């Protein structure tokens, strides 16, 4: 027999197991989303979908993969959940009784999945709405940021608690507790299962995009630990952004975030040396950049420009698109980048944006002008602030001050690759002033 | 429908001047009227300052009595409103308006039911 995760010796069955893993990634979140609506409970939905995938792993290798995998998983999950709830409800379990009642209410209003399965279009539309509801619930502002991230990865990405714990370098028990507490708050405080409308949508969407970008950044430059890049988190963030773009095609900031992540992701291969050292943008071998990702990212940036409803993610994507356009570091159109940073500073004022803008100022007007701007920023607790200052001081020949600034940056560096990079810079400084 | 407790936290110390409080109390009154009109309002009350509080603490068979509020700190519960609404988003909407009207932080907490 073939259990979850164990491929049988038969190669066709092995292929099926491969496919099931892919289908799991694709369908898990929306199956959970539909079942949360049907039963009004995240826990019941999660258990039911897990059970359905376990059944799929047992059955599909011999019976073949069904034509509608989503339909099969959702129907199986729903039937198994109802069977179990009926047993529990007979034993006076009030939660089971409530969940059963909830699922019947859905049937009465014509929202039960077996009705929807008759009409594929309605099914698809409802599934999309459910997925959005689940996204907005997971990213509700009444939940703490770590809880939002964990819930999103768990419920929409189908990552296990252990996988999420490893990704964020916390003990599995801590992550399990975080998820339990977040789900209990959703249930007990009655965080609604709905998509925000009208005036509240922009703020709530911003919160969702922030969660997705945080997942990407955690994967791209892990804030602690040895690994600079954690591929699975980046891939999941990009998948979530694609999902958001497909679900909310009229939101240019969702597109902007997707483009931004694709363009950053395109430089992955050039960003590290073979021995794990960090390579900054000007020093990267641009032939290693992923042209497909660049083309896709730049196409989205162009679509955003045509829409002319700019936002912070779109402008950051545009800045990255300028870099991606340039055949060499020297040929970079810094004037255009500075114009975009001016726009970004208006849309999203803040010292970190001002710091990044100063880097562009250094290229256009020289390091002295940039240093004047940087020194006025209140960012002493931010490692990159000291690294930028150090670089400007080095370029101005003020090596002793540069050394002090590199040491400040080292004290705040988050991971080993950054530390090694900064140590290299520090050692490379000439003697004297 | 679900009930929520909206707790208002205010800094200890002398009460603000009448001129300062007057517009705030007017805004609060308007908000309470609106809560009543929409059926969200269940109950509301303002409390005397925390130094009027007395704490009773069971110890063995006895109950110890001490002067002052239960929690140490520079802010204490100054009043509360109970509302009955659809879900947390609705409760947060009222809570947000209450915080704005009072210019004080508000904690929103669900009732067990």
Describe this structure in words.
The complex is a heterodimer of chains A (433) and B (113). Chain A has 433 residues and is mainly α. Chain A is built from 20 helices and no strands. Chain A is elongated and about 85 Å long. The model of chain A is unreliable at 1-9 (pLDDT under 50). In chain B, helix 1 (18-38) runs antiparallel to helix 2. Chain B has helices at residues 18-38, 88-102, and strands at 2-11, 41-46, 54-59, 62-67, 75-85, 106-110. Chain B has a four-stranded antiparallel beta sheet with strand order 2-5-1-6, covered by helices on one side. Chain B has a two-stranded antiparallel sheet with strand order 3-4. Chain B starts with a strand and ends with a strand. Chain B has 113 residues and is of the alpha+beta class. Chain B is built from two helices and six strands, in the order E-H-E-E-E-E-H-E. The interface between A and B is small, with 10 and 10 residues.
Q: In sequence order, what are the helices and strands of chain A, one letter per element?
A: HHHHHHHHHHHHHHHHHHHH
Task: Outline the low-pLDDT stretches of chain A.
Answer: 1-9
Rg of chain A? 25 Å
Tell me the major beta sheet of chain A.
Answer: none
> Could you spell the SSE succession of chain B in H and E letters?
EHEEEEHE
Q: What is the residue-mean pLDDT of chain A, rounded to a whole number?
A: 88
Oligomer: heterodimer
Spans where pLDDT lies below 50 across 5 or more residues of chain B: none
Radius of gyration of chain B: 16 Å
> How much of the residues of chain B is beta strand, in percent?
35-45%
Percent helix of chain B, as a range, is 25-40%
Count of individual helical segments of chain B = 2
Span from first to last CA of chain A? 73 Å
- What is the number of helical segments of chain A per DSSP (H or I, 4+ residues)? 20
Distance between the termini of chain B: 10 Å
Determine the mean pLDDT of chain B. Answer: 95
- Give the strand tally of chain A: 0
Described by the principal axes of the CA atoms, the overall outline of chain A is elongated
Q: Find the biggest chain interface.
A: A-B, 10 and 10 residues
**Strand runs of chain B, count:** 6
* CA-based shape of chain B: flat
